[in-house]
Design a protein that fits this description.
Pfam families: CT_C_D (PF02682). This is 5-oxoprolinase subunit PxpB. One of its GO terms (molecular function) is ATP binding. Its EC number is 3.5.2.9. By secondary structure, the chain is of the alpha+beta class. The chain contains five helices and 14 strands. The longest helix has 18 residues. The two termini are about 15 Å apart.
Length: about 240
């Protein structure tokens, strides 16, 4: 198992930040997830601690009392050395529907032009690829999906919009993602996902976890409208399979 040089520092009074080398790398992410699962199952009381893995770090949060940093830093270094071949949690591949109708893909034509592709090629490449969830944040349930094909890499919009529609699927830099609620945003919008990404009333508000995989598939407008109704009444069945690669 790979071992990296990690750094550990206070992150306010109630949190501590464990950092790996500062780059987007799935080997690093897997090491983070392995250590995160080891902390959760063997080291920390998960009723007291919140463990937040993302990209190249784990944030550990203890809300009930201030953290004794000197003691915890020593223990974290020891635990990292002991986690050995412990495995991360089971990962899943989620298949998510996207309607690329131009009513939703408000930047799709401009994206295609800038990338010297036609619209069908943009959609084909976006749906053929399998993405890795490197982080969840910015908004509750907003997934930062890495692994975008180089041919689809495009800069953020020069001027962010004040209002981006819930479910909007965007491109920015080397990433793609879905806006789980209406919000400001500067990503290039190419479609809309018909199923909700975040439900605060659910026991598990965000069904996707860091380390999971996501693949999009294209749907027509009529399917989109049907999925919206099914999602609102809670009968839409998400497609997921175990990811063991």
């Amino acid at each position: 198992m790979s071992k990296f040089s990690i750094s550990i520092r206070p992150f306010g009074v109630h949190a501590i930040l464990v950092e790996w080398p500062n780059k987007v790398d799935e080997v690093i992410l897997n090491d983070i997830l392995r250590f995160s699962n080891f902390l959760e199952t063997s080291c920390l009381d998960i009723n007291k601690w919140e463990i937040v893995p993302a990209y190249n770090s784990i944030t550990l949060i203890l809300r009930q009392e201030p953290i004794q940093f000197d003691r915890l830093i020593k223990r974290l270094k020891q635990w990292y050395g002991e986690c050995g071949d412990s495995k991360p949690k089971q990962k899943y591949l989620w298949k998510l529907p996207v309607c690329y109708d131009l009513d939703f893909g408000i930047d799709l034509e401009e994206v295609a032009e800038k990338l010297s592709l036609n619209i069908k090629e943009v959609v084909k490449q976006h749906t053929e690829n399998v993405y890795t969830v490197f982080g969840i944040g910015f908004l509750p349930g907003f997934m930062y999906l890495g692994g975008l094909p180089k041919s689809l890499e495009i800069a953020r919009r020069a001027t962010p919009r004040l209002k981006v529609q819930k479910g909007a699927v965007g491109l920015a830099g080397k990433q793609t993602g879905i806006y789980p609620q209406e919000s400001p945003g500067g990503w290039n919008i190419i479609g809309n996902c018909s199923v909700p990404m975040f439900n605060p009333k659910s026991d598990n508000p965000c069904f996707v976890s860091v380390g999971d995989k996501v693949q999009f598939f294209a749907i027509e407008r009529a399917e989109y409208d049907l999925h919206k109704i099914e999602g609102e009444v809670g009968i839409y069945k998400l497609e997921k399979t175990k990811w063991d690669a």
